[in-house]
Amino acid sequence: MTAVAEGWEVVVGLEVHAELATETKIFCGCPNRFGDEPNTNICPVCLGLPGSLPVLNRQVVEHAIRLGTALHCEIRPSIFHRKNYFYPDMPKDYQISQYDQPITADGWLELPDGHRVGIVRAHLEEDTGKSTHVGGDGRIHGSSGSLVDYNRAGVPLAEIVSAPDLRSAEQARAYVNELRAILMATGVSDAKMEEGSMRVDANVSVRRVGSPEYGTRCEIKNLNSVRSLGRAIEYEARRQIDLLEAGERVRQETRHWDEGDGRTHTLRSKEEADDYRYFPEPDLVPVAPDDAWVEKVRVSLPPLPAARRAGLAEATGREPVDAAVVVAVERDLDRLALAAVEAGGDPARVLVHVEHNLAVEGSERLDPVALAELTRMETAGELTATQAKAVLADLVAAGGQGDPRTVAKEKGFEAMSGDALAAAVDEAIAANEGAWQKYVNGEAKAAGAIVGAVMKATRGKADGKAVTALLEQRRELTPRPGA
Amino acid sequence: MARLARLDLTPEELERAAEQLGDVLDHFADIEALDLADVEPMTHPYPLANVLRDDAVRPSLPRDEVLAAAPAAEDGRFKVPPILGEAP
Amino acid sequence: MTGPDPATALAIAADVRSGTRKAVDVLEEHLAAVAAREPELHAFNLVTADEARAAAEAVDAAVAAGRDPGPLAGVPVALKDNLCTRGIPTTCSSRILEGWRPPYTATVVERVVAAGGVCIGKTNLDEFAMGSSTENSAFGPSRNPHDPGRVPGGSSGGSAVAVAAGFAPLALGSDTGGSIRQPAALCGIVGVKPTYGLVSRYGLVAFASSLDQIGPMATTVDDAALLLDVIAGPDPMDSTSIPDRPRPVLDQLDRGVDGLRVGVIEEMRDGCAPDVLARLDAAAAALEAAGAKVQTVSIPAVRFGLTAYYLIAPAEASSNLARYDGVRYGLRVDAPDTAAMNAATRAAGFGAEVKRRIMLGTYALSAGYYDAYYGKAQRVRALIAKGFEEAYRDVDLLLSPTSPTTAFAFGAKTTDPYAMYLSDVCTIPTNLAGHPAVSVPFGSGDDGMPVGVQLLAPALEEATMLRAARVLEAAR
Fold first, then answer.
1. Is C132 a catalytic residue?
2. Cα separation, C400 vs C279, whole angstroms
3. CA-based, 20 to 30 A from A197: which of A302, B29, B33, C351?
4. Domain span at residue C327?
5. Picking from A128-142, C226-240, C388-402, which range would have the lowest pLDDT averaged per residue?
6. Same domain, residue pair A441 and A388
7. Which chains touch A (3 or more CB pairs under 8 A)?
8. Does residue A109 form part of some domain?
9. Is the predicted pLDDT of residue A215 greater than 70, yes or no?
């Protein structure tokens, strides 16, 4: 973990809004769809017309239970509240949300490195419409007006609030990635930050290491990617530390991340904080999922990323935090890897391939038995790493099925015998006297020319590592001038 | 209060409103005296729970009819004067 | 007893269904009545004559084709102008919605139309249903047909006038704190507030969501029951609508009141005019004569009803009326930025009483005051509901005046808002509890103006309440 600055610690809590994957909006039957013509997916309810009333979508509750269960939260009886404020993208000038009785609360999420982050709550609310600013440069300031599209108004959102348990930009990024993986694995959301179906706001404060108190926090908005999240946290932590070290105070406020200049900026300050005048939503009745429903959801959940990492780690003798394990699960290739190991494949080689050589489309169709066989050929010395990579690429391109032995033969790959390799090395040494002398005298880089010559002469059949090893051996046996 | 409620009141209106509000609030002293700590607030007169609907698409409104009622519209969207300040 | 008065909805529907009368003729008779007195009385914001004629023709065509148009066949029905009617202006008697044509129709209106009813027009109300006299309407008040120098009551004043003046046998009103019952009493007709959740609120422009109910207004108890049966029942578009299908009420009203226990609410006598109390006592006597057991009951909590109501209703209203911001529909007053536009629009579009209640409601919900005001009021509400529950262990129905006085003169109560609020002191508690109640005309006051008495019942006991109402109707 990168330290922010000597003696200081950054404390981060994240609020993530995820659009739920349903056919229709949260309180009406309009399609929950992105990208349609403006104002074509609206009705009296989501437009908030006088006389309209909300009716809760069953699938939204199902998703809330799924998400809450995946985050180890309690599923609770809950009610909706009205959050009252004026803004043109709000059809009713109040948002139906949940306040002090959310549907799920008190859970946790485990990062790949094993660190547990508390989940304070995950509640339900409706999304707002979208306004685009006309004139100016598309930004609010200097615009000549705004145009509002209510297609998004009423799209169901889960707001997931973490405890302030994150201690670095890296951890924050890991949290978002893990949460995203969970949202996708459970089918609750497709969680695409770039498309806006997952939005992240960060609460950032700093304090001296060892201090029991929390510092004043600022809310950072307008984070459009995981990368922005990391950069913004680092910038903001530095900004706050600089202020405090200069003897000034950090003002509690909402700040806007500007990707262009890499800084956070105060939003236009308001005269006083908004008073949302929360009160229970009289048009909706309480939601209390019964035990049977909750249990049904629990048993239907697919294995979650943390469990999958643990499973793959155990099968391959690694740690769950191992980069290869993390990547395998991230890319949904862990089942493939497990099957390959089960089929007798070499765990280390399997993981190397999954991590480095299977980032292409169609990899998920690879036959685990073929992968297992391939790794056995490698460990038996029948194929070099480079050759194996090429065979793998061919197998994937051909649809994932096939026999690696056949492919290797077709490509003319055969491992070289030890004698043949030694002979090729000696020939190359003889043909590259100058480079050899430099290498013997200590210039490690000079070996490159000789290795290259060997590869050329053997048409790639030689194993680069074996060649280098042989060169080292030869060098040891060569008397040096003045030795 | 007027700002929160987005109501532009003239100074006379504001003064009169404050007076009348004060009068009405004075009348509310009767419940101030009540100790109701043990009484649960009643938010719904008829006890219902778990009223849900199926996740099935229903017809949306024709955009033309909706925008015809709009004070100002452009490009299929509702037009408003510049919005100062971000959403909370 | 001979058949129903030919002017009643029951009689009209029977005649139209049987082919004895034509719906278009019935309509023209009523439009003539409108033409004669509407300029003086201003019951309507809009008379929808053309649409009504088309609807009446359709009813006649159905009958001619051998189809049954339904239980309201050909009956003219007036609709309070806070009920959404697609393509027809729905103004809530407010400048902020002047000319607004909803793109959809309220569930209750759809049910009336499906039952063969002929919607004749949109009636005047106090702006956004806030008021007890229609003096808060942005389009001028309605006038009491018994004495046009007096108010008809409110907020469903226009609907009450339409029925009392013979413009339509049936009307729909809405009742949040008495807005159906009080104008019914002042105009001498029957007005029913159903159990909360019995009638769908989808398409009723919201005033106070946990209190609003739509209900029938008519000249007879049976007609009110007829309309109630048409509009009642579950609606998937309203989460607060009771999911069980209700049993029709109209065929349950013949049983009389023999053995029924009726309690006169002591606390609701306070502040009522002597002539109103005299009629109340006469009503109690009439019920006893018909076999009911009448006693006095005390429900101390109802004394706090006014206070609780004037915290809860404005609070919910302040939120419900936030949407009128000049962005999507209705009035817009231009300004350099959106927030200024919102404020200028609302300042120009809302009347004084609406503004007053929005301010009051905003205050009751604001940080630091919620617990003392809105929060407390919701507990008082629970207390009142509990008080009724306890009373109903000893009695089947409750009895009280509907309004403390007969219809007052225009301007009599407009200087002090609180004086106007007192008009609702007998009706408010039932809204808070969510129970049904009916106002039945029962004689006149000393000034010759109608007096109504109120029967209250436990939730979903409309049939019991209307049986007793029938008895009073026969006895007046």
1. no
2. 10
3. A302
4. 308-371
5. A128-142
6. no
7. B, C
8. yes
9. yes
- Determine whether C319 is an active site residue: no
Each residue's pLDDT tens digit, B39-84: 889 988 888 999 999 999 999 999 999 999 999 999 999 999 999 8
Q: Is residue A1 part of a domain?
A: no
Q: Between chains, do B51 and C376 touch, taking CB under 8 Å as contact?
A: no
In terms of C-beta density within 10 A (0-12 exposed, 13-18 middle, 19 or more buried), how is residue A34 classed?
middle
* C154 and C98 within one domain: yes
Give the best residue of B8, B66, B67, B74 to mutate against chain A (max A CB count within 10 A).
Answer: B66
Q: Which H/E stretch holds residue A120? A: strand A116-126
Q: Are residues C433 and C402 in the same domain?
A: yes
Q: Indicate whether A310 and A358 sit together in one domain.
A: yes
By CA distance, what is A150's nearest residue in C?
C328
Q: What is the pLDDT, as a whole number, of residue A271?
A: 47
Chains that touch B (3 or more CB pairs under 8 A): A, C
- Mean pLDDT of chain C, nearest integer: 96
- Residue in A closest to B67 by C-alpha: A39
Name the residue among C83, C90, C81, C78 with its Cα closest to residue C106.
C83
Inform me whether the pLDDT recorded for A421 exceeds 60. yes
Contact predicate C101/B64, CB 8 Å: no
Residues in C whose CB is inside 8 Å of some CB of A read 82-84, 90, 92, 97, 100, 102-104, 106, 201-206, 208-210, 236-240, 315-316, 318-319, 322-323, 325, 327-329, 338-339, 342, 362, 365-367, 370, 374
Count of domains forming chain A: 3
CB-neighbour burial class of residue C170 (10 A; exposed 0-12, middle 13-18, buried 19+): buried
**With contact defined as beta carbons under 8 Å apart, do A355 and A328 qualify?**
yes
Give the end of a domain, one of C327, C344, C371: C371
Residue A462 and residue A368 share a domain: no
Q: Which of C155, C200, C318, C403 is catalytic?
A: C155
Q: Tell me which of C179, C241, C400, C423 is the catalytic residue.
A: C179
What is the C-alpha separation between C456 and C350, in angstroms, rounded? 34
Instruction: Give, as one character, the DSSP assignment of residue C271.
Output: T
Structure-derived torsion over alpha carbons of residues C406, C409, C414, C417, reported in degrees to the nearest 10:
-10
- Neighbouring subunits of C (3+ Cβ pairs under 8 A): A, B
Same domain as C137, residue C281? no
Which tens digit of pLDDT belongs to each residue from B48-60?
A: 999 999 999 999 9
Secondary structure of C288-330 as H, E, C letters: HHCCCEEEEECCHHHHHHHHHHHHHHHHHHHHHHHHCCCCCCC
- What is the rounded average pLDDT of the residues C451-455? 98
Which chain A residues are closer than 8 Å to C210 by Cβ? 282
A228: in domain: yes
Is C80 annotated in the active site? Answer: yes
Q: Does C330 share its domain with C420?
A: no
Question: What pLDDT band is residue A3 in, cutting at 50, 70 and 90?
Answer: low
DSSP 8-state code for residue A356: I
Ranges of H-type helices in C95-180: 107-114, 157-164
Domain shared by A406 and A275, yes or no: no
A284 touches chain C (CB under 8 A): yes
CB atoms B58 and A30 under 8 Å:
yes
Please tell me what DSSP assigns to residue C158. H
CA pair distance C455, C435, nearest whole angstrom? 11
What number of C-beta contacts closer than 8 Å exist between A and C?
Answer: 98
CB contact under 8 A, C339 and B66: no
Range of the domain at A459: 418-477
What's the gap in Å between the CA of B36 and the closest CA on chain A? Answer: 19
| C332, C248: one domain | no
Question: Would A223 be classed as within a structural domain?
Answer: yes
A263 shares a domain with A190: yes
Final residue before a domain boundary, out of C320, C342, C371: C371
